[in-house]
Amino acid sequence: MSDTGGGAKIVEVLLPVAVDQTYSYFAPPGLDLAPGDSVKVPLGARDAYGVVWEAAPAPAAIGNLKSVISRYDRPPLSQRMRDFLDWLARWTLTPRGMALRLATRAAEDAAPDAPRLLYRTTGKQPQRPTQTRARVLKTAEGGMTFAKKALMEAASCSGGVIDALVDEGALETVTAPPAPVAEPLDALFGAPRLEPRQAEAAEALREAVFARGYRPFLLEGVTGSGKTEVYFEAIAAALQNGGQALVMMPEIALTKQFLERFAARFGAPPAEWHSGVTPRRRARIWRAAAEGEVKVVVGARSALFLPFCDLRLIVVDEEHEGAYKQDEVVSYHARDMAVVRARIEQAAIVLASATPSIETRVNAASGRYVRLHLDARAGARPMPALDAIDMRVAGPDKHRWIAPRLAMAVGETVARGEQALLFLNRRGYAPLTLCRHCGHRFRCRNCDAWLVEHRFRRALVCHHCGHMERRPDACPECEAEDSLTACGPGVERLAEEAAMLFPDARTLVLSSDFPGGAERLRREIEEIASGAFDIVIGTQLVAKGHNFPYLTLVGVVDADLGLGSGDPRAAERTFQLLAQVTGRAGRGDKPGRALLQTFQPEHPVIRALLSGDAEAFYAQEIALRERAGLPPFGRLAALIVSAKESALAESHARALARAAQSLPPTPRYRVAALGGLPEENEILVLGPAEAPIALVRGRFRWRLLIKAPRSADLQGFLRDMLAAGPKERGGVRVQVDVDPQSF
Ligand code: ADP
Ligand code: ZN
């Protein structure tokens, strides 16, 4: 027992690990800790990093609590940020420590910036003048200071040359304050002339940002309608107020093109946040966001966890994108969580899309979101003309995937000096490889999936786990030589056909699995935009958000792909994807057109696309969801139970289902009897069944699907069910996915 005089506190510290609870520590009187502070605490035999979640005056008796070791020099996590993380953890059934980890991972080495070393000339001549040395001195002459890297680049010399000049006294170093993380932005720099419709939408957003407070908007407008210009005005409003703004984008949409456009509007680029940013820079942006030095961050979904100190606006661009759903470690939907964050921060939020998700459409229809609509392309550009190619008539011969009519259109486009895009959402050469002789098919040894032939890599690849094996010359089953046949097309095969049809065209194949990663993709996307290619062949990578001014023809090679998957969201997804990809055409000076190769031209999705009548499609889809009690009219959760042995996963899943059935009714939910139709507050537990992909990376997966009306407490039920169910043992893992995107 110790006497705790004035100032001593007990603090509850949350650690960024898979634990929900906080740990209590004693804060010695000299260390005045407040919620949000980053601290070093003893944990077993080691020291750990954590964040103070609560602090209270210490009672007289504090038992044998350990003491906080020290506080880090790091901006505190605000109350709002902590509320947001608590909320996210509750909603996704994630331990709070894991939610904290999302927010602090990037800060790991967020030490204050060190001063920089700059170089300048002294006026002294080097003892041994060489051409290179003279060039360096000439570059730096006149007392200008240079960072080492900048001087190396400007004088095209090595670092050694500069070091030698310092040694000889011809250059000297001076220290300068750390470079700012981002250049200052100017809200009035490149203000555009908006069209009346744009101006009206922009004004509504500006008003909302100025008013402060939670205000959600759907900014809907066909591809090329000028949505970006409109939400830029909302950003300008946030800047004029001295506040911060966050723009979220699917990672791949974050191109140099976008950054340049931003810079043209605000005088400097925004701070970027995505997987390509170095950890050191991330740490700096993290700190700068917390200290208010960075005003605008443009980033992928993880930017949502930056500790902004004065967030006035969140923009979620392409809000319908599946890429916003994160399924690793913590499973959350970044768009939905952005809305929650905006509510907690009392900020405006803009969900922008040409093809909003059904959820967002319903929220707009019910008045929860204000809908702003741009119904024509900016600059009086027409929408592309769409037409179907009925493949039942024009059926491809065995190894042709480009119908004659599409081939002709591509030929004409290229001849006019314009660009054509052939779109096929399938990586690799062929989705299936089989032996003509014995029918043997290549299956992944870890997963329940066929191997996909990738001819460029001369390999068979599993698209689920990445397993790769050499494509053999003979069938491993019957040993027949030359009997292996590729079935169906992938982009690589399409490229082969295009090369045959258009041998002189400059053709580029774009696929996410090619070596070179994000950097190469960015470069290639810029090249397409600059008109360096005649024909572009690509997967959905090229469909999203880009502006290709020379592109006037889009050929969708298999418009039906994805419609037959049995997933209730299949129609919505296909509609969105095809509207996006056909919308790439005609964004420059010349009008565009798109041809859809389809075996089912009267399918509602294809019809909606051809007629341009999105309203009819949405109305039908929304009615269907409502009847079936599917999101957003009802709620869903999936429990994936996995283990090295299928029987183990299955029995665990069955035990969970039994546990659910045994839960007594509560005022917040009741579990529906098996076989019955759910009533008010009734939760339906479906399954277990083998998951759609029953084997992934050597783990067998069984799935329970939970369907609940909006009135029921789904999270409460899930918690109770997991508590009542068996312990996870024998390598069994249970993964909770609230609001699953595919089911
Ligand atoms: P969206 O985001 O809706 O797809 P963008 O904002 O990218 O549309 O605009 C599409 C094209 O129209 C861009 O090239 C943009 O520069 C141009 N644009 C947008 N607003 C205007 C305007 N008011 N006047 C002329 N061109 C515009
Ligand atoms: Zn696999």
UniProtKB/TrEMBL annotation:
Pfam families registered for this protein in UniProt: DEAD, PriA_3primeBD, PriA_C, Zn_ribbon_PriA
Keyword field: ATP-binding, DNA replication, DNA-binding, Helicase, Hydrolase, Isomerase, Metal-binding, Nucleotide-binding, Primosome, Zinc
Domain of life, per lineage: Bacteria
EC class name: isomerase
GO MF, one annotated term: zinc ion binding
Domain Helicase ATP-binding: 208-374
Presence of keyword Transcription regulation: no
Catalytic reaction annotation: ATP + H2O = ADP + phosphate + H(+); Couples ATP hydrolysis with the unwinding of duplex DNA by translocating in the 3'-5' direction
Coiled coil ranges: none
InterPro entries hit by this protein: DEAD/DEAH_box_helicase_dom, Helicase_ATP-bd, Helicase_C-like, P-loop_NTPase, PriA, PriA_3primeBD, PriA_3primeBD_sf, PriA_C
SMART domains in UniProt: DEXDc, HELICc
Cofactor: Zn(2+)
Residues where Zn(2+) 2 binds: C444, C447, C462, C465
Family (UniProt): Belongs to the helicase family. PriA subfamily.
Name listed for the protein in its UniProt record: Replication restart protein PriA
Provenance organism: Methylocystis heyeri
Gene: priA
